[in-house]
């Protein structure tokens, strides 16, 4: 497909999805040692307990977004809020912690001027880590570390790019998901790569070209401009699971870098967050969305060590779904599939499409001509 045509079609897709694409669906999902699942739908944080009861763990506020979640050994849940204050035209952010009983405390109270490098991503010594980047300018991508006494330094990264190395000798491009592994290292999705950052600042690439598709994959067109990878997690044996939202699949990366597809989902759902438990279970947060602006989720899936998987819950379906929503969803999936065809089609497919269109138009013209002639007669 010619670059200009591809750019036009992708531009149209971005325009159609603009209302939701700007929101960046949530990736936050964690599971405590009791098997209780906590996940974000972007505004509300939900709890699904071991008895199968779904409840609101932290009430949502319109326009206040929580994208990621993490959990500590005591079962405390951590998150970060981001919201926009139209009156002052400033962004408000905070970092919070909630106990399993629901008691909330702020590690950083809501502010329009947050201290540099203070986040929910905290290592065993209390240092916090923050990605400083601008995906529009693409000048630099830095992984900052802030010590408990407030000293901020560049832990790894420099100019925008891709290079393994230690500290500022390393380069990152567009970092998305972040998670700590059992070895204490940070794992990142970086464009189409998964990278590992050891606690001495050494950066290595675990896997690359993770957006490569096969004939079995169903592109969702939600991958965005900076890659299709979303949330990730690391199991107790070092296996990395990463949500490839742009291709509707969950990838599994072994410690030696071998990649395989663990799960593929059908429209309108795509995996966006993932969490691995010490017992080897994998929980997947799937977001349901399709054209023109129909939300169908989120839902949570559980995959057991022996490969069995089951959908545990779907938010919003407790009282049944409206027929109008179901129809809109099916129409959106059909339109999305058509757009995917236009983006990925080769010369032969375009030829067949053009020929079919020509035959259809010719048939309509002949029918109209025949109809006019019958009226004159």
What's a quick, concise take on this entry?
With about 375 residues, the protein is an alpha+beta fold. The protein has helices spanning about 5-15, 20, 325-345, 345-375, and strands spanning about 30, 35-40, 45-50, 55-60, 70, 75-85, 90-100, 105-110, 130-135, 140-145, 150-160, 165, 175-180, 185-190, 195, 200-205, 230-235, 240-245, 250-255, 260-265, 270-275, 280-290, 295, 300-305, 310-315. A five-stranded antiparallel beta sheet has the order 12-16-15-14-13, with no helix packed on it.
Helix fraction, binned, reads: 10-25%
Radius of gyration using CA atoms only: 23 Å
**How many beta strands in the DSSP annotation?**
25
**What is the global morphology?**
globular
Task: Please count the helical segments.
Answer: 4
Largest sheet strand order: 12-16-15-14-13
The average pLDDT is 84
How would you characterize the largest beta sheet?
5 strands, antiparallel
Task: Give an overview of the whole structure.
The structure is a single chain. By secondary structure, the chain is an alpha+beta fold. Helix content is 19%, strand content 38%. It contains 4 helices and 25 strands. It has a 5-stranded antiparallel beta sheet with strand order 12-16-15-14-13, with no helix packed on it. A hairpin with a 5-residue loop joins strand 7 and strand 8 (104-111). The longest helix is centred in the last third of the chain and has 30 residues, at 347-376.
Topology:
Blueprint: H1 3-16, H2 18-21, E1 29-31, E2 37-40, E3 45-48, E4 54-58, E5 69-71, E6 77-85, E7 90-98, E8 104-111, E9 128-133, E10 140-146, E11 152-159, E12 165-166, E13 175-180, E14 186-190, E15 193-197, E16 202-207, E17 229-234, E18 240-244, E19 249-253, E20 259-264, E21 269-276, E22 282-290, E23 294-295, E24 299-303, E25 309-314, H3 323-344, H4 347-376
Antiparallel strand pairs: 1-2, 2-3, 3-4, 5-6, 6-7, 7-8, 9-10, 10-11, 12-16, 13-14, 14-15, 15-16, 17-18, 18-19, 19-20, 21-22, 22-23, 22-24, 24-25
């Amino acid at each position: 497909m010619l670059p200009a045509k591809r750019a036009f079609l992708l531009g149209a897709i971005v325009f159609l999805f603009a209302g939701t694409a700007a929101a960046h669906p949530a990736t936050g999902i964690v599971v405590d040692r009791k098997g209780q699942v906590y996940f974000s739908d972007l505004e509300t944080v939900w709890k699904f307990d071991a008895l199968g009861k779904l409840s609101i763990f932290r009430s949502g506020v319109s326009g206040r977004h929580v994208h990621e979640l993490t959990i500590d050994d005591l079962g405390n849940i951590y998150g970060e809020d981001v919201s926009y204050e139209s009156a002052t035209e400033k962004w408000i952010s905070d970092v919070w912690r909630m106990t399993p009983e629901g008691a909330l405390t702020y590690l950083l109270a809501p502010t329009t001027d947050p201290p540099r490098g203070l986040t929910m991503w905290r290592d065993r010594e209390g240092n916090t880590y923050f990605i400083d980047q601008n995906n529009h300018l693409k000048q630099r991508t830095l992984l900052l570390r802030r010590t408990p006494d407030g000293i901020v330094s560049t832990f790894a990264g420099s100019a925008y790019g891709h290079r393994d190395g230690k500290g500022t000798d390393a380069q990152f491009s567009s970092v998305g998901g972040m998670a700590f592994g059992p070895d204490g290292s940070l794992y990142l999705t970086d464009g189409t790569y998964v990278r590992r950052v050891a606690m001495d600042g050494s950066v290595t690439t675990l896997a690359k070209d993770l957006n490569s598709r096969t004939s079995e994959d169903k592109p969702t067109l939600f991958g965005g401009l900076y890659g299709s990878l979303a949330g990730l997690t690391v199991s107790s044996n070092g296996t990395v699971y990463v949500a490839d939202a742009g291709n509707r699949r969950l990838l599994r990366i072994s410690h030696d870098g071998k990649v395989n597809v663990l799960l593929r989902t059908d429209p309108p759902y795509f995996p966006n967050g993932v969490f691995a438990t010490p017992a080897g279970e994998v929980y997947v947060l799937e977001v349901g969305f399709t054209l023109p602006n129909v939300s169908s989720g989120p839902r949570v899936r559980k995959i057991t060590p022996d490969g069995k998987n089951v959908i545990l819950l779907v938010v919003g379906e407790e009282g049944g779904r409206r027929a109008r929503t179901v129809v809109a969803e099916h129409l959106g999936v059909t339109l999305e599939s058509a757009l995917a065809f236009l983006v990925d089609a080769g010369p032969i497919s375009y030829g067949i499409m053009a020929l079919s269109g020509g035959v259809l138009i010719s048939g309509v013209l002949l029918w109209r001509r025949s109809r006019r002639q019958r009226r004159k007669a």
